[in-house]
Amino acid sequence: MTQEAATTARLMTAAKEALENYHDVHVDDDGALTFRHSEVPCAVQAMQLAEGLTVLSLTCVVAWDLPPGEELAQSVAERAGQGLFGTLGVVRTERGMDVTLRYAFPAEGMDPSPLGTLLMLVVATASQLRSELLAESEGTG
What we know:
It comes from Saccharopolyspora mangrovi. This is YbjN domain-containing protein. The protein has 141 residues and is an alpha+beta fold. It has three helices and six strands, in the order αββββαββα. A six-stranded antiparallel β-sheet has the order 1-2-3-4-6-5.
């Protein structure tokens, strides 16, 4: 096993341990951790960006197939500037708009408790955004 593989494996083990305090966590075939927070599906991966810089990347699918109106897109854009834990993304599809929240951070050496707290801050934000965006989309749909 290479040093990079060993480092990412340790980080994924720590992330799994941290998340299992809050959620049922599944390990996918590719090694990613997946779980749901309320109705928000989430995935965690680890990668080495450079020697000595290994990060965890958390992606939450906040909402999907939202009505493609400009008001909703503007609302997402405004939220993106509010200093969230993570970066909001919007993808327009033939079925509407999909919204994701992504957060990547160096996590090597973090103990499970603070790691879990940080991850839960991100997924709680994703769940709150989902509730707000669904309420807005119902008001415009």
